[in-house]
Amino acid sequence: MTGQLVADSLSSVVAADTVGLALLTRRYTERADVASVRILNATGQVLASGGTAATRGGQLFQQAVMLDQRKVGQVEISLIEPTRGEMIHYQWLPLLLSALLHALLWLLYRVLARPLRSAQLAPASITPVAVSLHSVTPTAPATTSEADLSAAILQAATLPAEMPVMLTIGFDDPRQLLETLSPSLAEPYFVLCQTLLEQAMHHLALAQNSSTPTCKVLRKFSAQGAQVGLSGAPVAMLAEYAIELASLFNLLSAVVYRRHREQKHFALHSRALVALTQANPSATQVVEKLMPEVKSSGVIVHAPEPLMSVLLRRTPLSPLEHPLNSLMREAMHVDGLSAEQALRIGQVRDRILKGVPA
Rounded to whole angstroms, how far apart are CA atoms 276 and 230? Predict the structure, then answer.
């Protein structure tokens, strides 16, 4: 928006057309998220300003107005930072629904917990309960406390185990090099990426200490990247496994990129997006909107808030900077892995690269 304002105001700033700049400022301040706009000349004198919420400014964006490598002015845009009261005002319905959901989950726990206590006296009736707990927390001990049982039931009720997860892997190609690449050069590179992906899926499954989710290649590598579907485990485990698989492939892709560039061969860095498919009927739109926001060799997760809360217990996540829509506000960057995960994928990476020619 700041760059567009610079382009729109250049001629008026040079001519010191305060009337034209005032109209331009008014047009930009009609946006609900803009607190104020100021346009200054080269000496810092205000040529035009506007905004109905100047005292509620949040983040300030500034950019110089240049003409023939000479600064002729400057534009400043301040965005509105919503207050806590406004967020509650606009989000009261989700908060109410969340409270009702927690009440229902508490009642569900009260109903399910009583049979579990009585089942401890009858060994024949313990089997269904053990299976249910194993599907939620695979490494849970044989004796589970009431607090752990409550957390397990809460997670199972909030995040249905049949909800599949989709991992999309794409290329970081800011210069659109893939569009200029001939098929004779592109196809071998796609085959190499597909081989790395299949090796990553195979060896990561072997390295898992617990039950491994089922991974299926939904779309092989092309200029649009590749997609992998995950199922056969609780959704939190699926998402965590998809993050590991994405991080592992990014590491492998970085090594291949370095080797290829040393030999003056074509290569690109990869990036990945983890998203739920059943919870979001417009999964294709999620990929189209969020994939450009993924950093080079980065991973983004898009999931409902309950699942994000579960993932945050083991995986460092951070919100996307300056979200422009609801999808970006619901997504988070993966900032790292746990020590256990990092050690595992490091070992798997080294095992795979031993079989990849330099």
Answer: 10
Do the domain assignments include residue 41?
yes
CB 344 within 8 A of CB 207: yes
Tokens of 171: 């290329």
- Residue count of the chain, please give it: 358
How many structural domains comprise the chain?
Answer: 3
The half-sphere exposure of 300 on its side-chain side, counting CA atoms within 13 A, is: 27
- Cβ atoms < 10 Å from Cβ of 176: 9
Q: Is there a contact between 165 and 229 (Cβ–Cβ < 8 Å)?
A: yes
Are residues 268 and 201 part of one domain?
yes
Q: What is the pLDDT of residues 194-253, one digit of tens each?
A: 999 999 999 999 988 667 888 999 999 999 999 999 998 888 999 999 999 999 999 999
Report whether 211 contacts 133 (CB < 8 A). no
Q: Are residues 142 and 277 in the same domain?
A: no
pTM for the model: 0.55
Establish if 358 belongs to a structural domain.
no
Range of the domain at 137: 86-158
Same-domain check for residues 348 and 223: yes
- Statement to judge: residues 268 and 335 lie in one domain: yes
In the chain, DSSP assigns E strands to 34-41, 46-50, 57-67, 70-80, 165-172, 214-222, 225-231, 269-276, 299-302, 317-319, 331-334
Indicate if 60 and 146 belong to the same structural domain.
no
User: Which range in 46-60, 83-97, 250-264 is most confidently predicted, on average pLDDT?
Assistant: 250-264
How far is CA 189 from each of CA 103, 268, 299, rounded to the nearest angstrom? 53, 10, 22
> Which residues make Cβ contacts (< 8 Å) with residue 342, sequence separation at least 6?
336
CA 134 to chain centre: 28
Q: Which of 330, 336, 251, 328 is nearest to 294 (CA)?
A: 328
173 shares its domain with 191: yes
54 pLDDT band, cuts 50/70/90, is low
Distance, CA of 123 to chain centre: 45
- For residues 92 and 74, membership in a common domain is answered with no
Handedness of CA 290, 291, 296, 301 (dihedral sign): positive
